[in-house]
Amino acid sequence: TINATKPIYYAAVPSPDVAERIQVNIVPLTQQVERNKPFYAECRLSPRPSVPVDYTWYFQGRVFSRGERLSIRELNENTVGDYICQARFRPEGGSDVEMKATISLWFTPPSPDCCGDPQTYQLSINALTERPTRGSPFYADCRLQPQPSYPVRLTWYFKGRYHSEGQRLSIRELNEYTSGAYTCQATITPPTGTPVTVNVTKPIYYAAVPSPDVTGRIQVSIVPLTQQVEQGRPFYADCRITPLPNAPVDYTWYFQGRIFSRGERLSIPELSVNTIGDYMCEARFKPTSGSTVEAKATISLRYDSSPSDGRTAYWVSINPLTERPAR
């Protein structure tokens, strides 16, 4: 008996009512921020989704902690900087939704004529438009806490280029040319000493879904490369998407419910009782201005008793004949 399993799904995307109105914000919980003292903040989604949310905090390009709460035990030169909260969830019947927000923590150099501790400033971008929509305006405010008594200059940058001045960010029309990463830069000029610069960046996008021309015609299949499959010998196969998207594709192979390897090629060094079974290829990619597309295929490797040749491994795969699985 030879079995093969292939999950067949129609393409699902986040509901516009979910993806468009969700906003991620970082809320500081520590009112008095001081050197050598702890700092706490929370990453919050509003409105909160009805499904579980995975929160991950990043600092200096690495994972700092997981969970909604950011906890910094001690503020010092090694712990100040940009902290990014990544919130990820999957709506019912939809694809993964991923959102990010950044909070910047920096020390102000002490003034020569002041003996107090240097001040820590928090800079954040707060969206004023609840539902970013293509073709509509978008507004956000840049807020600095605490507010210093001396001059502060707020400057907006878009993709590294100058955009505008002032606390309010105004985007006349959200489209593929105006959506992306916006940075607010606060320049604080004390009466004496060196000006202090604090930056915060927030990605601003409208909700987009993959084109039906992309999701409807994508097929994933497993192509065995090993013609003679025998016990004690290696086995190779490729996971292929047709037509190949113009975006990078991440391939992940699973065996017995765990990650076996990454990449398009499946390589089994030796076929044995411990390495036969179901191997699933998961292919993920993100079309331009679209949501993540995920497709899977499974190949089953089983032994069959043969009086003449002993135990031999056979491969079997399922090739879909329906080009566009639809609900």
Automatic annotation (TrEMBL):
InterPro entries noted in UniProt: CEA_cell_adhesion, Ig-like_dom, Ig-like_dom_sf, Ig-like_fold, Ig_sub
Keyword Ribonucleoprotein in annotation: no
Domain of life: Eukaryota
Keyword Disulfide bond found: no
Keywords: Glycoprotein, Signal
Domain Ig-like: 16-104, 118-201, 212-300
Gene3D superfamilies registered for this protein in UniProt: Immunoglobulins
Protein name from the UniProt record: Basement membrane-specific heparan sulfate proteoglycan core protein
Gene: PGBM
